[in-house]
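Service request form, structural biology core

Requester: graduate student, group of Dr. S.
Request type: structure prediction, single chain
Budget code: on file
Notes: please return the result as structure tokens.

Sequence provided:
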Amino acid sequence: MNGTKRRSPDEGISPPPLKRKAIGSANSVANFFTPLSQKKPEQVTWRIVNNSCIIGKYHQEQALEAVKSGLKRRVAAFDLDSTLIATKSGRRFPTNERDWKWWSPSVPSKLKELNDEGYVVVVLSNQKAISLKKDLKGGKMDSKSLSIFKKKVAAVMQTLDVPFSVYAATENDEFRKPRVRMWREMLDDHDLDVAGLLDLEQSIFVGDAAGREGDHSCVDRRDFAANVGIPFKTPEEFFLNEAPKPISRAFDPKNYIAASSGEETNITFSKKNDVELVIFCGSPGSGKSTFYWKYLEPLGYERVNQDILKSRPKCLKVAKEYLDARKSVAVDNTNAGAETRAYWIELAKETKVPIRCIYLSTPPQICKHNDAVRAANPKMESINPESRTLLPGIAFGDFQRRFQEPTLSEGFQDITHIEFKFQGTSDTKDVWGQYWV
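Core staff response, request fulfilled:
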């Protein structure tokens, strides 16, 4: 799949220009001195949650009154770009706040129809290109990208003139789709987080990232909609009534849970020598630290980790001190290639102890998934006991580039090969089984 955005079916579908009502100076002065309790609320309001998620609301008090009626509610959620709107210029990113048009002429009428039917209409969009840093140099509170986004979205809202909310995730964190924090924030804002109040089966999410040929990803269909448990349609299916197209499902975490639950967990590791050096070989996110804490730490192995000690020389120094003190050591590093592993084999020879290798062959997709799950759940000790943050994508590519499968000919006494099998509590399973990447 490439990163090309789908073009709208019509090239010239621009919204009508907004007519701004002139306010006389006398009325302006009177409005200025009107008590806050008597002033009408602003049509469009903005707030930012955790310096990450931008939230814009239009006529929200009307929507809240409908929610309070006690009827079971439905949500119609949409991606923004290439779903509701497209750029007039044809560029990937808008050149200014006026560089937008409806993705299809049917979009505004369909959104109004949904509102009339009682749906809560919202936008849930990843907007990593927006900077939330203040434009201090320009003397403005908002960055240029944030200012353009706010003005553009306000114009969309005012053109529609129906209760409407926009949620935009600007960071690679728990708010970013397919993660569900943005959805939960929306439920809380609309008082929909009460058990039994929301009709998930009759709700819907519409987005262009659907895993079709040419889509930039499948974060909307396979991932986000599946995570929150609502039906999904593409813009073509929802607005143009086109038939669904085939999709590619490259990775489904639930498949690994199902496979693991049907197998006996027969992972064993035993100490073979009074004092020995054990090194891991495995990608970031492959489960090295988890394996250490579960199987090696109870056997008395001291842990040496470069993320903590910051350099290989420091790791070698600390490991030697442990071995000289007749303590077994586990080296919890990636040790991707034979050249890196040779440092540890040389240390084993120097200290006259056997060296063993634990090789974790966890597939790259699971490694990235594990990393994302861990980073997005810092408060779940069963998932992230060391409060680790998200690794840069280059870390996984760098490991694959340097990787050489370990062999006995390098000097290991033995090599224990570990294939990934999910293990965890029901709570951990629920979290790990969602889409996170």
